[in-house]
Amino acid sequence: MTGSIAHRGPDEQGVFVCPSAGLGHARLSVVGLGDGQQPMASASGDLHIAFNGEIFNYVELRDELKARGRRFRTGSDTEVILHLYEEMGPDCVDLMNGDFAFAVWDAPRQRMFFARDRMGVRPLFYTEVGGTLYFASEVKAFARVPDFTAELDEIALDQIFTLWAPIAPRTAFKNVYELEPGHIMIADKGGLVTRPYWQLDFPDAEASRAPRDERQAAEELRELLTDATRIRMRADVTVGSYLSGGLDSSIVSALAAPMATGGLRTFSVTFDSAEHDESEFQEEMALAIGSHHSAVNVGPGDIASIFPEVINATERPVIRTAPAPLYQLSGLVRAKGIKVVLTGEGADEVFAGYDIFKETLVRRFCDRQPGSASRPHLFRKLYPYLPGLQKQSASYLAAFFGAGKDSLDDPLYSHRPRMRNTAAAKLFFSGDLRAKLASYDAAAELASQLPERFARWHPLHQAQYLESRYLLPGYILSSQGDRMSMAHGIEGRFPFLDHRLVEFASWLPPGMKLKGLVEKHILREATKDLLPPSIGQRTKQPYRAPDSQSFVGAGEQPWLRDAMSSEAIADSGFFDVSTVRKLTEKCRQQAVTGFRDNAAFVGILSTQLWHRSFAGSRSDVTEAA
Predict the structure, then answer these.
(1) In what order do the strands lie in the sheet with 292-298?
(2) How far apart are the first and last CA of the chain?
């Protein structure tokens, strides 16, 4: 099992086995290079730990533990966890500021203790086979378990084709689960018990409108973000930074640059497609902060050539190709000898940066006066980077964005248009699959899991919760994050997801985050001295990559015909052969331009690749791993 995820930790491997339990570890050595080997035992030998990730405040925690008489044998953050667990048991996670997933074997109590970080940066999966609990950072490790069989969970597929990701603890694999973000789990002879130790929260709507001094809030934000970046620069290896050319990664890189000995190394993705390329802004920012900059270019056919590898890494179907360029980017970082990179992920969720937040504001504005002919024109302002949208009439815009379709009291109001547009791709499901899912509603299940206090929050905070609690860990931090970077042994670090910063931002008035139609207002105010005006004042342009057009044309890959053939579609049984054939031909004719068909094509293709890589007999899965 450890060998099957060696890409996550290519530096060394270790195993601990006792009569009741076993731990394996593939190490990416970042802190305590010479003495941080795992699995690590406590001084007494009663505890053993396998740990993936980093505890960024381990220096402060170690000093506090030493002051209480604790003695350390290593310089690693792993040993800090063992001491904290000895003193506090499961409550030890409350003191940790980090991105982590770990398991501690507690021999005296004959139990295994598991924990996952608050925002879901690091993964932890588990399954039961033959009365034994197995766990790992990636599902492919279970392929080494005798009698484990990989099978696609059809409910999870429906969730992906509606919400972009399965609803945790469900995964793409039947009978395989993930520990949810901000949760701990204890396994002993009595079974499994899970509970949250941290939850994202917001003030009641009325309280969230309380006035607050903006200048003071900006100063406090700047202080928190600087410290979050500072502690994420801690490593015994060089720390680099991703630089997309957008606001968030530019802020992180600007803060990190003075902290980097010998200058900051920055890395970017560029595209041949002008619609997707941001190299002009990347180069401007790299010059402004004096970083040593490198970029990987994504040209025609590049996404298609690596897409099977990408799906083997994501371990789930996806409906966008966006993970593929990030897979290439992490390969570049590894080739340059860097193991750790900072990224700007999380800022859009924490400070309301996504278009969906502005779009929801405009939809609510339109729904209050449904007869207005002028209000739908506001949708054009949201998407200046989509030229086709600028030509549409007000009536088309209102219909496209679902103005008037949803009740203002609907808890999923903010996300209904996205869900409808994505779920339209389910028209390609096979008759058998549609029959099995006839009574299932992924959106209804999501709504049923919302906390009771959700209804009391401001509408912006409701939308932020949906993004932060579900899409962020389910897709952004996994399929586009951990899986793409760790496929090449690269650790991503996320200053904007420091829980102190998340908690601070959640209590800011909505108008400080989304001021009119200006996203991330308070973040811009707090960091405006760090960036060139062209970047600091730039409107959010979401990271995207070419979708169906990546797979057709002169560079069409031979594997595509196999994966999308009528025989392969019929064999998997998930999709309708006739409609998939028509969609594939439409793509080959370069006639697919809309979101639905692009999402459907990528979703079908990635599901077929998933089926080829993982489903079937154990020996097939082992070869794929």
Answers:
(1) 292-298, 265-271, 239-242, 340-342, 491-493
(2) 10
Query: Is residue 356's pLDDT more than 50?
Result: yes
What is the Cβ-side half-sphere exposure of residue 508, based on CA atoms within 13 angstroms?
Answer: 28
Angle between helices 355-368 and 459-466 (to 10 degrees): 140
Q: pTM score, two decimals? A: 0.94
The model's confidence at residue 622, banded by pLDDT at 50, 70 and 90, is very low
Q: Do residues 534 and 545 make contact, with C-beta atoms less than 8 angstroms apart?
A: no
Least confident residue range of 10-14, 145-149, 181-185, 586-590: 586-590
Q: Phi/psi class of residue 199: alpha, beta or left (left: φ > 0; alpha: ψ in -120 to 50)?
A: beta
- The encoded tokens of residue 419 equal 């869900």
Is the predicted pLDDT of residue 621 greater than 60, yes or no? no
Residues 207-231: pLDDT tens digits? 888 888 999 999 999 999 999 999 9
Percent of the chain residues topping a pLDDT of 70: 95
Please give the distance of CA 286 from its chain centroid, rounded to a whole number: 25
Token pair 């350390």: residue: 72
* Integer Rg of the chain from CA: 24
Residues 6+ apart with CB under 8 A from 34: none
- Label residues 3-20 b or e (16+ Cβ within 10 Å = b): ebbebbbeeebbebeeee
C-alpha span between 624 and 143 (Å, rounded) = 9
What pLDDT shows up at residue 387? 64
In the block, residue with structure tokens 């603890």: 169
Cβ atoms of 414 and 358 within 8 Å: the answer is no
Distances from the Cα of 299 to the Cα of 210, 243, 331, angstroms: 50, 19, 16
Q: Is 263 exposed, middle or buried (0-12, 13-18, 19+ CB in 10 A)?
A: exposed
Could you tell me if 525 and 373 are in contact, meaning their C-beta atoms sit under 8 angstroms apart?
no
In the block, residue with structure tokens 């506001």:
378
Report how far Cα 221 is from the mean position of its chain's Cα atoms: 23
The pLDDT tens digits of the residues spanning 253-268 come to 999 999 999 999 999 9
Strand partners, 147: none
